[in-house]
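Let's do one together. I've listed all components of the complex below, 273 residues spread over two lines.
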Amino acid sequence: MNLPHLPTRRTPGPEPRRRFLGSAARALVWVSALPLGLGRIAEGWAARRNEKAFNDKELDAALIDAGVPDAIETDQITLHSPELAENGALVHLEIESRIPDTQSILVFAEKNPQPLVAQFDMLPGLEPFVAVRIKMAESAFIRIVVRAGGRAYYMRKETKVTEGGCGEV
Amino acid sequence: MSDRIRMRISLSGDVATVKVLMPHPMETGLRKDPITGDIVPMHFIDHVVAKLNGRAVLDAQWSRSVSKNPFLEFRVRGARSGDTVTITWEDNWGATKTGEMAVP
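Okay, and this is what the predicted structure of the assembly comes out as:
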């Protein structure tokens, strides 16, 4: 897949280098901001965003790079998603975990060009629930992985897509 | 369309349900402009932070596979009427936007 050269504030250049330098620059900004207690949204960003996992083109690689290759299948995660989505550009997901100490919810569209769609880190006070709308390139399983108490759990459910949503708006 | 973040908050007990709409093109970099035929550059929100009274409660990292004009819903405990919910997003071009709303 060839992606066009992108205008960006962070760093010019080809994508991997751009993102790497961008992360490095952010890390620097973050570290230098620490003593002053500064850092707004960028606070901790470079440390948390797993660029490699987001860039992976195969599900197995994305699961490994996200650190959840050995997730245990569970029925303690609920995913409300359409069985049939006419428009792959707009697939509504509602995700709820009943696993104690849920820390992160990861969403994978298994056949998207880059399967990792989103990671939600739940900080203290947040209920283990999130709803979001995603694009799906084609009919595929959606895999939800939950990190909780030092372990990883998953469930997956198929959504059939009439018209893929990646080349569309 | 205004790109202002829009929010709807409802309070049940001490749990606030927050629904957010973030106007943004969320371009995948795979779409062609229907008129010029040129590829539309990749442009998407890659990071969202939600705060309650200034304390981060949700930190989301996104790919370009989140839908155009992203919708996000979450629930936060310990909320009271008058508390402030703040949403900030950042995209892959480095732009950011913040919106806030009081819990009703």
